[in-house]
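Quick one: structure for this chain?
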Amino acid sequence: MSKLSIIMYHYVRELEETRYPEIKGLRKSEFRSQLKFIKENFNVVTMQQVLAALVGSEDLPTNAALLTFDDGYLDHFVNVFPVLFDEKLQGSFYPPLAPIKDRKLLDVNRVHFVLASAPVEKILETIKKFVDFWQERGSVSPFEKYYSEWAKPNRFDSAEIIFIKRMLQTALPESLREDLSQILFSKYVSSDEKAFASELYMDTHQAKMMVECGMHFGSHGDTHQWLNRLTLDVLHREIDNSLLFLKAIGAPCKAGEWTLSYPYGGWNDDVVCAVRQRGCALAVTTHVAQADLHRDDALLLPRFDTNDFPKTF
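Got it. Here's what it folds into:
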């Protein structure tokens, strides 16, 4: 068989017991229940089995499923790893380097926790004031132009939420969106980003332990940037630094062995070429579909989201 259902996870935590119960995540009880559903309806495979199937040395079982976990959260060490270990299942984990090594808070997480901590109307009000200020100085377009272009709902978020995410992740010039996201985070979440990052992400020792216990670790870049929006020099540095990290924790990093999850699902031909040249064996996107290892490019495999499967069973 060549069909593979790749499932993507992010936050897994008892939401009501945290300071941020509005964060969009999966409760531990829901993860256990969903894992029970997956075990009863799929055959959970390891990354080694998938890579062997890619080169034709073995077939996947019927209804094969691969579990992937992005962004290197402490949730994965505390709430996911013990469950998978007890169930004798492998997860594939994709942490970016900067949060693990340098305790740098990722832009994407600033956005998540701002949205979990403040009313959407207040966030939009702050963004409008910020954009109006810089628009008067000729640095950015009018607020209304940005809203018209970026306020497009998707299957999980409203138009307003998508607009906020895009303004803080890509629409504004990098220096300005960094300033705006820090203003919002400091106002609504915390003034100490480094301390917050220390609570949010796993550390190097925890990653090493998970590798030693059979979990797969792959690349998610160095600083979790949209790889398809980087210069070639920065793109190569993002990949190379992440491979050094994989080597340091004892994870596969040689040509034909290492795997990648594109941050934000962002890729283009230059990105695929760069990772192919460095020997990436498999890469996952955020395109929603079942993967077919005989049909799909191994560096452009689609994934399902955890929300595509039952949370209670």
